[in-house]
UniProtKB/TrEMBL annotation:
Record PROSITE patterns: FE2OG_OXY
Transmembrane feature ranges: none
GO molecular function: metal ion binding; oxidoreductase activity
Stored PANTHER family: 2-OXOGLUTARATE (2OG) AND FE(II)-DEPENDENT OXYGENASE SUPERFAMILY PROTEIN-RELATED
Span of domain Fe2OG dioxygenase: 191-290
InterPro entries cross-referenced by the UniProt entry: DIOX_N (IPR026992), IPNS-like_FE2OG_OXY (IPR044861), IPNS-like_sf (IPR027443), Iron_ascorbate_oxido_reductase (IPR050231), Oxoglu/Fe-dep_dioxygenase_dom (IPR005123)
Organism phylogeny: Eukaryota, Viridiplantae, Streptophyta, Embryophyta, Tracheophyta
Origin superkingdom: Eukaryota
Keywords for the protein's UniProt record, in alphabetical order: Iron, Metal-binding, Oxidoreductase
Annotated organism of origin: Hibiscus trionum (Flower of an hour)
Pfam families to which the protein is assigned, alphabetical: 2OG-FeII_Oxy (PF03171), DIOX_N (PF14226)
The name this protein goes by in its record: Gibberellin 2-oxidase 9
Family named by the database record: Belongs to the iron/ascorbate-dependent oxidoreductase family.
Length: 337
């Protein structure tokens, strides 16, 4: 028996999970779900005793690390997870009616823009449902429905913690990289932060489905809080490695913007999500970006803003079907004479 929410909580296109074919979803991947990915101990960074050397090495070697002693009360983490699971378990039609402006509910979409809109033309469809939460708009959110009230409070509190964590880490990274803090001060802006909640269904009998296809994040930093089901994989040394969930810890990813800010010393790590055979998976992800108009200056890239980057990504996705990413902004090496 699959362990999952009621079938009527899933979007109609996902309801082949009871064994019948899925008419609405395309074939998702050529990879076999059985290809082995070994699980690895990613580096650990302790926020309370932050070592710049340790942090720098994790960002250079891995582009991802596990954050411990982050200061988020365990009770808040579990309360938020409960709310998220409860909301996703509601009937599909109720979620569409309930999760409205400034929240947005989406499913099966490819890459999304920070506003929550799907990028048109993308080849990849992700097998997930998501709720997009722009943090700065939460205070105006009139959560009249009692099912949303506690959820809103948790999100606000969680958002404050995540802003604090992202700012602390970014400042430490700038120090560790030895770049001028003045030059990078607007390269991370708390007010751009948003949260995305995801639910991935269990892998169907159809066997071929990635919850989220491989990608790099366009953010400065992304902070992932995955439940105990797991399934997040990172690409390192030409191999896919499974990042095991460890309760109470967070996973911090270096995004494309941070890679450019660091002049390619840090790597924006490629990752994907594998669906679990038996159980649905929930994750709570936070993304933060440079301030509007803030220019990223480095020796390897032409100066660009996040808006330039996002426009290019949207254009490539529309015309090519995929994100080219940082290569579009790379300064080409002068031809040898
Ligand atoms: O659900 C996850 O663990 C990761 C999600 C992710 O990679 C993303 O939203 O960019
Ligand atoms: Fe990602």
């Amino acid at each position: 028996m699959l362990e999952m929410g009621k079938l009527d909580s899933y979007p109609p296109g996902f309801r082949h999970l009871n064994g019948s074919p899925a008419p609405l979803l395309p074939e998702l991947s050529n990879h076999s779900m059985e290809d082995s990915s070994s699980s690895v101990p990613v580096p650990v960074v302790d926020l309370q005793c932050l070592s710049l050397d340790n942090l720098g090495e994790a960002c250079k070697e891995w582009g991802v690390f596990r954050l411990v002693n982050h200061g988020i009360p365990p009770s808040l983490l579990s309360k938020l997870e409960e709310h998220v699971k409860m909301l996703f378990a509601l009937p599909f039609e109720s979620k569409q009616a309930l999760l409205t402006n400034p929240l947005s509910y989406f499913w099966g979409t490819p890459v999304l823009t920070p506003s929550g809109a799907a990028l048109r033309g993308a080849l990849n469809i992700n097998m997930l449902e998501g709720i997009n939460v722009p943090l700065t708009q939460l205070p105006q959110f009139q959560a009249e429905d009692p099912r949303l009230q506690g959820f809103r409070h948790c999100l606000e509190e969680y958002g404050r913690h995540l802003s604090r964590i992202a700012t602390t880490l970014f400042e430490a990274m700038v120090k560790s990289l030895n770049v001028c803090p003045k030059q990078t001060e607007s390269n991370l802006d708390e007010s751009t932060g948003f949260i995305r909640l995801y639910r991935y269904p269990p892998r169907s009998l159809a066997d071929e489905a990635w919850g989220m296809m491989e990608h790099t994040d366009s953010s400065v930093l992304s902070i992932v809080n995955q439940d105990r089901v797991g399934g997040l994989e990172i690409f390192k040394d030409n191999k896919w490695l499974l990042v095991n969930p460890v309760s109470g810890t967070l996973l911090v990813h270096i995004g494309d913007m941070m890679q450019a800010i660091s002049d390619d010393q840090y790597m924006s790590v490629k990752h994907r999500v594998r669906m679990n055979k038996q159980e649905e998976r929930v994750s709570i992800c936070y993304f933060v970006f440079p301030a509007q108009g803030s220019v990223i200056r480095s020796s390897k890239y032409k100066p660009f803003t996040y808006t330039d980057f996002q426009e290019q990504v949207q254009n490539d996705t529309k015309t090519l079907g995929y994100k080219v990413g940082l290569d579009r902004f790379k300064l080409t090496a002068p031809a040898p004479v």
